Amino acid sequence: MKLIFEKSVPGRKMTLLPACDVETVELPAGLRRASAPALPELSETDLSRHYTELNQHVHGVNCGFYPLGSCTMKYNPRIDEEMAALPGFTGIHPLAPASATEGCREVLDTAKQYLCEVFGMDACTFQPAAGAHGEFTGVLLIKQYHLSRGDTKRTKIIVPDSAHGTNPATAHMCGYDVVNIPSAPDGCVDLEALKAVLGDDTAGLMLTNPNTVGIFDENILEITRLVHEAGGLCYYDGANLNAVMGVVRPGDMGFDCIHSNLHKTFATPHGGGGPGACAVGCKAHLAQFLPQSALMDGEGHIQVRSFAGNFLVVVRALTYLMTLGREGIPEAAQNAVLNANYLMQKIKGTFAPAFDRICMHEFVLDLSEFKKQTGVSALDVAKTLIDYGMHPPTMYFPLIVHEALMLEPTETESRETLDWAADVFRQLFDLAHQDPAYMHSAPHNAQIGRPDEVRATRTPVVRWVKA
Ligand SMILES: *Cc1c(COP(=O)(O)O)cnc(C)c1O
Q1: Domains and CATH numbers, the chain
Q2: What is the rounded average pLDDT of the residues 98-112?
Q3: How far is the CA of 147 from the centre of ligand 1 (A)?
Q4: Is 208 in the pocket of ligand 1 (CB under 6 A)?
Q5: The model's pTM
Q6: Mean pLDDT over residues 108-118, rounded?
């Protein structure tokens, strides 16, 4: 596909601007460019076709099944977009006087109240722009808490090996030493290993629950009790709240703070880097340390981002919470769990689940035995799925499972789609035994085959340079 710059024809234009109805003022010479910017010149037809073609080159939730584990690529209801597009919300300036922002502040306050209810927490902020940013904010609350008590010897954060990769990174960014503990064979935290590392240097524990192998930790009350007994605080990574919302509350499990990605569970489309927003909730004893960002009149104190955060993402989340309501929220969670278990059971018998037990919203397949037998890797399977019109699952994550494929179907997929997906997996299982070479070189029908992933991230070309 050609770049928009390559389609440009000098002089071609679309006149869409209304006539200027104010006096024009020339910029001072020092502020003007020497030559005009090389913007592409196209007709409206060409422009429309260009973006439509781009749109056809990507796979989104609205194109087909997207079981990307840990990312919660579910359908986002259109009404949430409609509310976020209301001019009263899109047009507000963060420095507008309080008298002009009452409605927006009510949105923030109501969303906070509802999410505190879902989390089982007392206070909340929307300032962080994404999940990892929310973790950073949450762990800083823990740090402030210990420091405010003069408790300076707590230098360690405990992170189980089944945690999301951002957890150890966050603890490190907050200046803590990361203490890794292994999982027991059942996929839950190894309690003996936990007891062995707890002490008066423990600042806290970060727990991803359900963890990255899709398991709800059976000993969760014991875990939070042990950490508190040692004087540490408990952090709940609820980036993805799809399995638990409205069913159980992290606050009731003994956690002191939590983050949840509004762009996963609460109706903001994501992928490709944003915009996201993160809710960080905490119990009353941490509330005084929260960023003071609720006011949109510029009276910020501790801040991790400007103003109230990504406000329109909060509008979507509130709309989502209000349309689902008290009955709909747990129902969505139950369907997410049901769909994941249904798909796991239908795939089982071909590809093997890493943990053959009831899962939560996602599950992990372990392809190491399959690879030994066929030579076909998890990457080959993922790439072949593209030819079948399915977005690949998350690959090679979590690290504790080798040749991992992590599937999260979400609650918004029908039984027919899940049956189709299971059938595709079965076909690929057979194909690997018959024609592994085909799978080594897949995809065969996609726009691009196998890009050099290292070069793509290390030396990305994201800017058009005139030849
Ligand atoms: C997605 C995710 C994160 C990170 O969220 P970002 O918005 O990508 O920064 C953290 N923890 C878990 C469990 C996640 O699934």
Answers
A1: 1-24+36-57 (no CATH), 79-322 (3.40.640.10), 334-457 (3.90.1150.10)
A2: 95
A3: 27
A4: yes
A5: 0.91
A6: 97
